[in-house]
Structures are given as C-alpha cells and as structure tokens.
Amino acid sequence: MRAAVAAGVDWVQVRDRTLAGGALRAFVEQVARAAREGAAERAGAVRVLVNRRLDVALAAGADGVHLGFDAMGVADARRAWRELGGSGPGLIGAATHAPEEVAEAAAAGADYAHLAPIFDPLSKRRERPALGTAALSRASHLLGGRRGFVLLAQGGIDGQRAAEALDAGAGGVAVTGAVLAATHSAEAVTRLRATLDRATRHAR
After folding, report:
1. Is 180 part of a structural domain of the chain?
2. For the segment 180-192, what is each residue's pLDDT rounded down to a tens digit?
C-alpha cells in the first residue's frame, strides 16, 4: 500500500467483508497509516475510504465511505458523518451499475460514483455484462457538467482502457486487479498514473 500510494494512487478504498467491526477498524487504521506514509514520500495527499461501513470509517478516522447497494442512503450517510464528527467534510460515494443510477447518486448529494463494470473485471469473475464506454458517455451527459461530482470508471481498467474511460467522460478510474494482481504493484501504478495524467492534459 505504501509503495502504491507513493507511486501515484490518490484514493484508497478498504473493502473486506470477512472482518467484524473491531478487526476491520484495526485493518483500516493499518492501511491508512501505510497510505499516508506513501503520500508523504511523494509530498502529496491520499484519501482513505471504507466500503459500506460508515461506523468503521468514523471510528478509524477515515476520509469517507463508499456506499453499496445494501448500505444506508447518501443523505443519511452525509447527516451521520456530520453529526457524529467525521474527519473533515467526508467523501460520500456510491456504487452504480447504470448511467441513471449515477445521476441519482449525484442528485442525492454523493461526491462521486463508481460506474461498473465498464469492461470485464480483471480481479474476479464477471457477474454482469460489461457496460462499455458508451455508458460513461451517457452518465456524463446526464450529469450535465455537474460541478464537484466525480464519475469514476471501474471494471477491467488498465492503462489503455483508463485513457478510453477519460475520453468517454470519466473523471478518474477505480482499479483492483490492475494493481493488486501485478507482480510489481508500484510499477503498475506508475504506468497507470502516467496514462491518466497524459489523458487529463490532453482533455484540458
């Protein structure tokens, strides 16, 4: 984790449904510590989010929570984060599987949404048909240039496909297999980061 963040990862989502509350909190704290050390190495910043468990995110001092289909709603999560003293304003994100769901998440007040799977996943068996980059274009159109909301492409993303995703309207990418399955994760991140930075400069 430290090496991956030092190489350019700027958001980390901790997802482990096998761990109970206390163990998950300890794991999040360990991951966050390594991630922040990695960010310090490149004199940058990193945000650590917890999948689904807002209570654990709050207890561990994480930067936000990623809400799945079986988690609380965006508005409830935002209110709980504020009332329970979360770290900073808190990033509230949503998992989506259709362009319309992205628009709904934005309207509900989410800061970002993952749209997946754009391509067949690299880290697990396919559970649903790939949406393709046309879904990113459709979601971007529905958002209508909404400021402050980030659309992230997820599913089967590698260096080449990251550029395709940004060209189609994504503001960034979420990856698992491209980094965790790589022999040298830091090198994989470096290549992916370079692709993203080039695509972003071209888009600007």
Report:
1. yes
2. 999 999 999 999 9
